[in-house]
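Can anyone check this?
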Amino acid sequence: MYRKYDAAERACLLEQLNQQIDNFEAICVGPYIAGPEVTSADSALLPTFVFMTYILPKYFGWRDVFAGRQKLAAWWDRMQQDPAAQKVIEEVSGGLQSWSNKKRWEDLGIVQQLQDNPQYKWAYP
């Protein structure tokens, strides 16, 4: 969601992303993705969810990435309490904030694209 796409493709990718988040909700065992212990699944998904929780509400108007996704919401809350995960969250969030400060989304035309194309659905769920 942070690269250059035409509006139709971006809207389609957002819809697919929403479906993929639902898929993660369906396969999440709890309290972590694959069960009672942190695994490589959690480590692999964590940076992606940092991106999503930052970008989707701020630029695409999602009110809550975890709305209706109780298992993922609980997983996210738990991961934010983990000291190793906190370091990843801070690092990725810092990079995203830097991008915002440098107007990455504006420079790529994303902000304007959303304003110019209200016929597409940008916010989920």
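Reply from J.R.: I decoded it. The mean pLDDT is 97.
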